[in-house]
Amino acid sequence: MKIDPITLLFASIFTSNILLANFLGMCSYISISKDLKSSNGLGMAVTFVMTVTTVVNWFVYHYVIVPLKIEYLRYIIFIVVIAAVVQILEMVIDRISPSLYITLGIFLPLITVNCAILGVTLFMQLRDYSVVQSLFYGLGSGLGWWLAIVLLAAIRKKIDNAPAPAGLKGTGLTFITIGIMAMAFIGFSGMIRVQ
Amino acid sequence: MNDLSNIAKKNILKENQILIQVLGICSTLAVTNNLRNTLIMAVGVTLVTALSSMTVSIIKDYIPRTIRMMVETLIIAFYVIIVDIILRAYLPEVSKALGPYVGLIITNCIIMGRAEAFAQANKPILSFWDGFTAGLGYTLVLLTVAFIRELLGFGTVFGIRVMPSSFTPWTIMVMAPSAFFVVAILIWIVKSKLIKGSEKK
């Protein structure tokens, strides 16, 4: 598929938002978005890890998995790579910038089991992106996730005070909010699209 | 026996993984605009949950605490690969439609949640049952959501037309946002029931 990287970047932020169109990374999305500050931190961490892991997994897939013909092991390999990258990033960030480590630190272990990270890797492999496309796709998906969680956290702050029926309060209302957000994002989809 | 039915009741109704615990949402929503794919996905998740809970429970005494999560992830990935290979061999078109979501069973929080919360402290057979019933609760919700979406979105049930031909399909039901609305309404119904139930006591 030939789609230029910049288009891919914008498509993955808006029209094919990894969260609102593909439903990935919902667990942490719902539980963390109660608080705006942590949402921002987690969003930053996810963007960072997603960009790095997508590119690393691209190299692993094309230079290790395909030549050795072990495609059936790819899930295990991808998840191990993601765990390893997260671990290394944690150490590097701790060494280089302790202040960033304090903001991101608690979120990093959570990210290994964030389905969005593995999802982006699998989509990248399935759609046969080149390395540059993968870089922009990873970055765009991360930014899209970040945008979505910060938006939801800001909305939830107001919505928690709204008088809603008891059964709908909390999770139910959050879901309806996300649904409306998803509709808004899908509104962009006439402009550009990746499948 | 009492134990078994208690666990089942808890996992399917009182603490339904999706509606009450809000776990495993990712895959729930993505595949539910088509009943057939949903059923296959749900069976896959149920099997993986049950088997990995059992495996974790069998080897729990040999896993060092520090790498526990990693080992659990690998066990889950192992079963997911089996499911993936079976799907690709026998149901290639379904496997294609589900795409990356089969692989994403690995990061389904329900499985990890059951392994961590239950299998760590219980016997293998009990853990198997716990994982199995948690999967059943998941299946139930998934099928309900898929039923509503397929009925209104395509006018069909399992691919068979049931709505009269004058029925205009609701395109929104096929697209992503409707999944959120349908789940929200289900949560609303179940929670209201639970609140009423606790008031009676």
Layout of SSEs?
The complex is a heterodimer of chains A (about 200) and B (about 200).
Chain A: H1 5-13, H2 26-32, H3 36-68, H4 74-96, H5 98-104, H6 108-112, H7 115-126, H8 131-159, H9 171-186
Helix pairs in contact in A: 1-8, 3-4, 3-7, 3-8, 4-5, 8-9
Chain B: H1 2-14, H2 25-30, H3 35-59, H4 68-90, H5 92-98, H6 109-117, H7 124-154, E1 156-157, E2 160-161, H8 171-174, H9 176-200
Number of strands of chain A: 0
The radius of gyration computed from the alpha-carbon positions of chain A, rounded to a whole number of angstroms, is 17 Å
Average pLDDT across residues of chain A?
Answer: 82
Number of separate strands of chain B: 2
How far apart are the first and last residues' alpha carbons of chain B, in Å? 26 Å
- Count of all domains of chain A: 1
**Which structural class do the helices and strands of chain A define?**
mainly alpha
Shape summary of chain B: globular
> For this entry, what is the oligomeric state of its chains?
heterodimer
The helix/strand series of chain A, from N terminus to C terminus, equals: HHHHHHHHH
Low-confidence stretches of chain B: none
How would you characterize the largest beta sheet of chain A? Answer: none
The amount of helix of chain B comes to over 70%
Strand order of the largest sheet of chain B: 1-2
Radius of gyration of chain B, in angstroms, nearest whole number: 18 Å
Note the main sheet of chain B: 2 strands, antiparallel
Low-confidence stretches of chain A: none
Overall mean pLDDT of chain B? 81
